[in-house]
Fold:
Amino acid sequence: MNIHHKSVDSILSSLSPLLAPTDDHPRNPFTDIRVAITGGTSGLGLSLVRELLDRGAKVALVARSRDRVDCVVQELPAAHGIVGDVSRKEDIHPITMQIVGALGGLDVLINNASDLGPIPLQLLGDTECEDLERTLATNFLGPFRLTKAMLGSLAASARECRGAVVVNVSSDAAVNAYPRWGAYGASKAALLHLSRIWDEELSSEGVRVLSIDPGDMDTPLHAAAVPDADRSTLKRPEVAAREFADTVAAVLSRRTEAIAQEAIG
Amino acid sequence: MIAARLPVQRPSNAKVLIADGQGNIEHKARSEFADLLRPGDVVVANDAATLPASLSGQHSRTGRPIEVRLAGRDSLDEIRYFSVIVFGEGDFRTPTENRSKPPALKRGDRLELGRLQGTVVRLLNHPRFILLQFEGSPREIWEGLARHGRPIQYAYVPTPLAVWDTWTPIAVRPVAFEPPSAGFVLDWSMLASMSARKIRFGTITHASGLSSTGDPELDALLPFAEPYRIPRSTALMIKHAQASRGRIIAIGTTVARALEHTAAMFDGVVPFGERLATQRLGASSRLRIVDAILSGTHERGTSHYELLRAFVDDETLSRIDHELNTRDYRTHEFGDSVFLERAATRRAPRLGHLLEHVSCSSTPSTSAKVCFGGLLPHDAQSFFNPVRKE
Structure:
């Protein structure tokens, strides 16, 4: 797993005793934390829903397919399922309204929904403009719009010392130029840079924006990109979800530590 | 004044009229609003997001088209029971006072509102004002509101509003029925510059209600009871400001209503928590907390205008009206603004009389009425707190 922000690395090392297993830790930083996860019905997203529910978070998940959302909510009734497409401008406020309405606010937003681009993967010269537009809409504009719509909630969360973290799911394709990964790689590179700028701009509001690359995982997206991959070499999404949760826990712990010190002091 | 017809939250030519505590009036570009603030000030805004609270559909028994506008509820968490105003056929393009009446509504009538289904629980002392119960799970109700609802709007804005037109940049919980539009002035750059100048910023969440029902009898009862929540961080900021004599600036009438409601309950102190604002501020009110207010420009006779009378005397307000009219200020939610410092005569004694003019309740038992003051006629009580959990 790669975290694209040095400051997060330093958080991880300084707070390493607080990390896994967090559910044994007396101050589980996820207790009652309100989390929204896009693309929450498969792959890493679904594993994150399970992991964060296990850790005591209040979780809303967003995905396009009503059947799959219903299926996840049936399995995990504590989760709040929302049908919506983050690539559609018209869906952003209805999604936001349902998340914040159901959870009463938001502390952690995980922009996980991703579009691979043309399948099978294509050289840029063979990529249809419409495919690139759709990939940018899901992987770049969607997270921007959703974060912007959630900014009031995240800033309020920060003021109340609850956390306020945005995690944008990244990829090594955001930093390396892999042939045939043009649409996906360019969109993830844009998202990575957006994350860096958000993080700089929102530091005064107490909101952190992280970009995390979970590595190559055994997910439907990877199978679509590399159909003949040796799955035994791929990371299981539940392992990646645990690592994600630990990283977010480290950031949230700074808040809980601060609150504890305030209470003592 | 001129109606602001375009849904632009921060037009570059927006103006603000400033009246200081001595009644002196000046004018500035509203983008310079932050310059009116001083280090040590605490600015409090309403962070409610705006529900798309207009639901079109039909009255099942008669098959006639209706529009329902959500108007009230007794807590921020309530999602099933709403008091609502019902209109007949038509939409926002017809001024509310000219709208057709709905069919006669009876207890038990079913209303089909897109994906949402509701039942008339009872009438609230008026043929068009009812308590409505939505059917389905909270998830289904949230989805129905989010997908089917339209923002409440009025005829002076000719094009249909999008939801994002009605959300301030700081919007959080979707609990307002109309936008807390004074907050349109804020953007993140302004908040950053305030922070850099040691001006503190906090929020409350106040479920702003309707500004007009189209019915004089109902309009006379506005604002209805409105639940609000003061978070711990804002309560602390206010406490520190009170201790250090910093000013408390309300962005919008809802903030003034909420803070003064709590202060009246707790004798000038503002503890955090959720409560139900039931009082009306006006010329006879004495303000305990709010030192200045940024608000829209309001027309005489509206409840918002009445609230401004708590800040300045009528002579000053008349001069303000004259200035707003002669200088072509724009009114309504996308219009220009006024910034009024509380006149010295409007300040309550530090240890004001407890519970003066206030009807109040507080969560978690929002239905438990703590007290009811003498401001309102007794039979108006059901309008102001119409929603009851069974």
About this structure: Residues 181 and 239 of chain B are 26 Å apart (CA to CA). The longest helix of chain B spans residues 232-244.
